[in-house]
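assembly run, all chains below
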Amino acid sequence: MKQLELDQAIDLVQDGTFLGVGGVLLKRKPMRFLADLVRAGRSRLRVATFLGSVDVELLAAAGALDSFSGGYVGFEYLGFAPAFQRAVERSEINYREYSEFLFMAGLRAAAGGLPFYPARAALGSDLVAELGLSVIADPYGGCPVVAVPPLTPEVAVIHAEVADTFGNVAAPSFPDFLVDFDVALARAAGAVIVTAERVVERLDVPAQIFGFQVTAVVETRGGARPSGVPGRYPPDVVAIRRYLTQPNLDSLLEAVG
Amino acid sequence: MAEPYTASEMMVVTAARALRNDDVCFVGIGAPSEACNLARLTHAPDITLIYESGTIGAKPEVLPLSIGDGDLCRTALTTVSVPETFQYWLQGGRISVGFLGAAQLDRFGNINTTVIGDYARPKVRLPGGGGAPEIATFCGEIYVIVPHDRRRMVDRVDFITSLGHGRDGQERHRLGLQTKGPTLVITDLCVMRPNPTTNELEVVSIHPGVTVDRVREATGWEVTFRPDLDTTPPPTTAELEVLRDLKARTEAAHRGGG
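ok done. output:
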């Protein structure tokens, strides 16, 4: 049995924890979990996610974020992430900007037990030096490669549609984009917390994350709001627009389901 | 009598014309996506459009607002995983053209979408480059669409998010990259291509009604005009119809929050 109450799962994240956050842009962000972390007063969190939006913005608005690793934080056509942007401009948050492939390479190194993962991604980009990554010669004589060290969150939190009490997580019902990011993150992290729309006793559909990898499962209906879960509910664009027009932590916490 | 059109339509139509029917194209959201879908709906019906979200052969009915729009997945042949997108398609050299926008673009085609000012203490922190750095490195060639003004078209970008031809124009050669980098820049004033030797961007054609002086004033470096400087052909009525229809459909579909 891996099923916990939300407040029990929150205790798995301390001040300063390196936290991997699942979901991409406005989809499958574990917002209920993050909102409760904020309410519990967690601080100095180091967060990694592939492409951030309302998740990173919430933590930044609450002053809970020490550093961010990832490829983007914003709302695409809806605009920038105001609290996050301001805090980075004031050097209150260290934005360790990865390109998407450099980020994936870091997760792959972590998941595969490698000292680094070779990637030619982002060769020639100033991001490589800012991240302190080594560019090494190809031992077989081709063009150089970036040696990306493991990106190993101490804890990953992901939001799923259906999981079971043993921690098995069903593959998403809708063939949505970037669903594999959550799987890659879960395999790179030290511990995995799953929040799910529904927790059943035992899955009767194929799993993509397995119970033995998972530390805790929590049922949180609507737990991704105001981000969406493809096939279940769309992002709450109205609430997000309202927040972006008048950014304020309380209104953002209210938008969380 | 030609139909009146906007500077933005001129830019998108010119970009669309550069695409070929057999291109495999990595598409960004916004103007690049407008251009690629216009090409698909006019002269390049078989073009393969790949969005960052891993959708292969997307044929969206309306323009996506986000790389995660469901329409991209629904109309694509399939949606592949992130590692497959980057390792097989991009790094594997299977994309012929990448289409990028820019917050800043410099004389050597380097793109900045990271910070205005210093990286650690930025004047403006931009959202971040997403997958643009690897798109720039690994697509066969890069087309850039960017509105033309001094804030964007700068002598030297504050930060290289995505490699063009490097600080001195020769960086791709030094790194041993086989891809061409930016070969075409389309703005709302003109079309630019890199000089074959120095890789500095030069104006090859000016859009109808735009003067050489206006381009000069809007460019942050001492810009060169090719001796055989041309006027960009204006959009045809047919191109404008398809583009406007696509945008009207898009607006109708996304109305009410979408």
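The mean pLDDT of chain B is 93.

Chain B has one domain: 7-248.

not gonna interpret more than that til we talk
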